[in-house]
Amino acid sequence: SFNWISEMDIAFGGGNLYAVWDALETITTYGVFLCRSTNLGFNWDPWVNLTPTDRNCSAPRVGAIQNGQQVTVVYQDAWDVDDIDVRYASSEDAGGTWVKEYGLNCSYDNERKPDICVDPTLGDFQAVYWKENDTIYSSAPYTNPTAWTPPLVINDTNQTSQENIPPTVAVHWISGEAGVAWPDERTATDAIY
Question: pLDDT tens across 30-43, in order?
Answer without folding.
Answer: 999 999 999 999 99
